[in-house]
Specification:
Helix content is 45%, strand content 13%. The protein has 19 helices and 18 strands. The longest helix has 30 residues. Bound molecules: FE-S-O hybrid cluster (FS2) and iron/sulfur cluster. The site of FE-S-O hybrid cluster (FS2) has 15 residues, from loops. It is found in: Cytoplasm.
């Protein structure tokens, strides 16, 4: 077992990476190894998909599988080894199918099909035991002794970024939004990886290509969310329970939440959001359901305590799931790509078992004191008041913008992000997104002439909104984004944050502070190359007060 895809990876003097089970996240060795095999096979699917596309066969089902399959391997998504055995079998079938389609189409055009190698020809074994014996040969760090950690790290940067892209693409696809341009580019990048690249500069350039692809995918997801559920509106969300039966829905998938709301209509059950589902409360179509009662709890790492206390069933629509405690393992459900051994999985869109569980469980005995936070500052909202914001900057009422967002996690070094938000001066605005905001989104920030000082933009993928807003401000002031009084402090944990970070780098945005650590796969050589060859800033967070002062002196 070797995995270093997330911020929680083991960092020991002997090496960097979770090398023995369970990984810090709870992933066992078999699951980690099977995820590596699946990822390898998906590159093989992409090898043929790309070539099939070139001869006129663009097969959406194949790309559906590529994105879904990669999503299942993301941190804190799926821990069920048996599920990966099935996905490996499915990947092989899909690869053989698209191979056939490619070869037929090529022959019809009178050209000889290419003979491919690498993941395109990898034959997974039939038994779990043999599969696990194959895993070291296709692991992320296979051949590190010969290739070196820089080559492995650069490849990791690309594939981990692609996992993030895949998650966002999947959320858009379930809403019926897909793009041939995105599919083609994803196939190209995975095909590139299948060629076992070794040129560091070339791979770093390709990683920025992942960032550019992620921009398109985040935009696609934004369009999907907005056209399906309406544009986010400023919304006061209740964050305390109401008496009655209850269901808690966590993760990022708004489509799943919609299904649950629809099926629980008029059943006397309150539906609450949790974690990254909080922004759902700001979408008109979703908040129109009177039984969407608000948001309970905070970021993913608090779930064992919060879920134990919740008096109803819990539904995980995407990451981040962590080992369910015994007190709630029989009332937590997983959907889509998510899985945990022994946890009930719903894959047919029928939430009857969840509804039955909600009715059988006690629910909340009484109303709690009404507590609220304000959300809904997506780009539609913010651009709608752009004139007011620009005027406030011109008059000096707003001196600086901070974007403090990303993932949350366990590391105490993450207090940095709370300290920055809490100590940002009164004439500055803090924009936030992702689950990292739970560290400070109940704090009192006040407002500047009616503009709230804390603006919750949405989920991590709503980084797209933040980029749109920054672009609009730059246009209003006739300058570049890097010339704006804007500082970005990005908290990362998993591979979606990697994709977002690559997007910001690809846009040439300078001065981003990343933390709590730099990714383990970014070796000193890679960091140095990104800085010198590509003129990118790759700065680790420092001390909060010092970083704040430095940001403000550049205002
Ligand atoms: Fe948080 Fe976990 Fe959003 Fe990440 S709920 S760390 O997956 O994607 O942010
Ligand atoms: Fe370790 Fe993170 Fe990989 Fe889990 S996902 S095994 S914590 S590096």
């Amino acid at each position: 077992m070797f995995c270093y895809q997330c911020e929680q990876t083991t960092r020991t003097p002997a090496g960097i990476g979770c090398t023995s089970e369970p990984g810090t996240c709870g992933k066992d060795e078999a699951t980690a190894d099977l995820q590596d095999i699946l990822t390898h096979l998906i590159k093989g699917v992409a090898q043929y998909a790309r070539r099939a596309r070139a001869v006129g066969v663009a097969d959406r089902q194949t790309d559906d599988f590529i994105f879904y399959g990669l999503f299942t391997t993301l941190t804190n998504v799926n821990f069920t080894a048996t599920r990966f055995v099935h996905l490996i079998q499915e990947a092989t079938k899909r690869r053989e199918r698209i191979k056939l389609l490619y070869e037929e189409a090529a022959r019809e055009l009178g050209t000889a099909p290419e003979i491919l190698s690498g993941p395109a020809t990898f034959q997974p074994a039939d038994s779990l035991e043999q599969l696990l014996r194959q895993a070291p040969g296709v692991a992320i760090n296979a051949n590190v002794e010969h290739l070196g950690s820089d080559v492995i790290g650069a490849r990791a940067l690309i594939i981990y970024g692609m996992k993030g892209v895949a998650a966002y693409a999947q959320h858009a696809r379930v809403l019926g939004y897909q793009s041939d341009e995105v599919d083609a580019q994803a196939e190209e990048i995975l095909d590139y990886l299948a060629s076992n690249p070794t040129d560091l500069d070339e791979m770093l350039e390709e990683s920025l290509e992942v960032g550019r692809l992620n921009l398109k995918v985040m935009e696609l997801l934004d369009v999907a969310n907005t056209e399906t559920f309406g544009a986010q509106e400023i919304t006061s969300v209740r964050i305390s329970p109401i008496k009655g039966k209850a269901i808690l829905v966590s993760g990022h998938d708004l489509h799943d939440l919609k299904q649950i709301l629809e099926q629980t209509k008029d059943q006397g059950i309150h539906v609450y959001t949790h974690g990254e589902m909080l922004p759902a409360n700001a979408y008109p179509t979703l908040k129109a359901y009177p039984h969407l009662a608000g948001n309970l709890g905070g970021a993913w790492q608090e779930q064992q305590r919060e879920f134990a206390d919740f008096p109803g069933p819990i539904v995980m629509t995407s990451n981040c799931i962590i080992e369910p405690g015994r007190s709630y393992k029989n009332r937590i459900f997983t959907l889509g790509p998510v899985g945990w051994p022994g946890v009930r999985h719903i894959d047919n869109g029928d939430f009857t078992p969840v509804i039955q569980a909600a009715k059988a469980l006690p629910g909340f005995a009484a109303d709690a004191e009404d507590q609220r936070i304000t959300i809904g500052f997506g780009h539609h909202t913010l651009l709608g008041v752009a004139g007011k914001i620009v005027d406030a900057v011109k008059s000096g009422d707003i001196r600086h913008f901070f974007l403090v967002g990303g993932c949350d996690g366990v590391s105490p070094a993450r207090n940095y992000f709370t300290e920055v938000a809490d100590n940002a001066p009164a004439d500055s605005v803090v924009m936030t997104l992702g689950c990292g905001k739970y560290r400070f989104n109940r704090h009192e920030f006040g407002d500047i002439g009616g503009i709230p000082r804390l603006l919750d933009i949405g989920q991590c993928n709503d980084a797209h909104s933040a980029i749109r807003v920054a672009g609009a401000l730059a246009e209003a002031f006739n300058c570049g984004v890097n010339d704006l009084p804007l500082s970005i402090m990005l908290s990362w944990f998993e591979q979606k944050a990697t994709a977002i970070h690559l997007s910001l780098l690809a846009l040439g945005i300078k001065g981003i502070k990343l933390g709590p650590t730099l990714p383990a796969y970014l070796t000193p050589t890679l960091v140095q190359k990104l800085q010198s060859r590509f003129d990118l800033d790759l700065d680790l967070i420092g001390e909060a007060q010092a970083d704040l002062q430095a940001a403000l002196t550049h205002t």
